[in-house]
Amino acid sequence: MSSPLPSSPAVSVLDLAPVVPVMVVDDLADAVPLARALVAGGLPAIEVTLRTPVAVDAIRAIAAEVPGAVVGAGTLLTPEQVGEVVAAGARFLVSPGWTDTLLDAMRGSGVPFLPGVSTTSEVVALLERGVREMKFFPAEAAGGTAYLKALAAPLPQARFCPTGGIGPDSAPEYLALPNVGCVGGSWMLPKDALADRDWARVERLAREAVALSAGGTCR
User: Fold this and answer.
1) How many distinct helices (H) and strands (E) make up the chain?
2) Pick from 65, 64, 70: which is nearest to 13 by CA?
3) How would you label 156-175 residue by residue, b for 16+ Cβ within 10 Å and e otherwise?
4) 17 phi, psi to nearest 5 deg
5) Distance of CA 169 to the CA centre of its chain
6) Does the annotation count 135 as an active-site position?
7) At what angle do helices 28-40 and 55-65 cross, to 10 degrees?
8) Tell me, what's the pLDDT at 175?
9) Given 135, 149, 191, 208, which residue is catalytic?
10) Which residue among the candidates 47, 84, 128, 149 is catalytic per the annotation?
11) Radius of gyration over alpha carbons of the chain, in Å?
């Protein structure tokens, strides 16, 4: 696994790592050691979801204290959140879905972004707007690998980061698809390991996640 690419609007989120850990931070004190464990395990691109009150502060702390991390913000729902997380140091943006207003805010942020889609019409609408890289969510519930395979022939220009219900058993099948650049997941962040602050276990699980893409899936 190569070192993370520098932050730039031209850099693809899909090319940073084969697996993007989806992190929910409940205790701000855990953010930095958790990010360090993921980076040490070979997963530098980390999505911190805006599902807890400390999420923005967690992004700020990781951006400031974990040089190897490429920290992003997930579960973005409003333009105001886009501005807040970019100011905190987020280097990529992820939303579960999109509207024209949210898309305009993400496009204007100056950092890479992945708007969420779950239907063919949403994919076509984004392609019409010049967006070719998207989050496919909720991946398993929305049709999984079979759905993405079906999209590849008529819409080969679209690339995806599937997220939602993906684990170590299903991730390789997703990563083998030509229109998948990476997958998002939280299986390397089990609740008991976080409760015990077992960062060594998180690092080991991160290394195992990287190994799922052996053979060059990380492009």
Assistant:
1) 9, 9
2) 70
3) eebbbbbbbebeeebbbebb
4) -165, 155
5) 18
6) yes
7) 50
8) 96
9) 135
10) 47
11) 16
Please identify which residue in the block is written with the tokens 């520098």: 6
Tokens representing 3?
């070192």
Angle at 142 between CA 96 and CA 181, to 5 degrees: 65
Going from the first residue of the chain to its last (219 residues), give the mean pLDDT of each consecutive group of 10, the final group possibly shorter. Answer: 40 86 98 98 97 98 96 98 98 97 97 97 98 98 98 97 97 97 97 97 97 55
Contact 135, 166 (CB under 8 A): no
| C-alpha–C-alpha distance, residues 75 and 90, integer Å | 13
**CA dist., res. 131 & res. 81, Å (int):** 20
Residue 10, pLDDT score: 54
- Virtual torsion, Cα 124, 129, 134, 139, nearest 10 deg: -30
Euclidean distance between CA atoms 130 and 146, whole angstroms: 25
Per-residue model confidence (pLDDT) at position 112: 94
Alpha carbon distance, N-terminus to C-terminus of the chain: 9
DSSP bridge pairs for 114: 94
- Contact (CB, 8 A) for 163 and 135: yes
- Catalytic, 149? Answer no
Gap between the Cα atoms of 123 and 136, Å rounded: 9
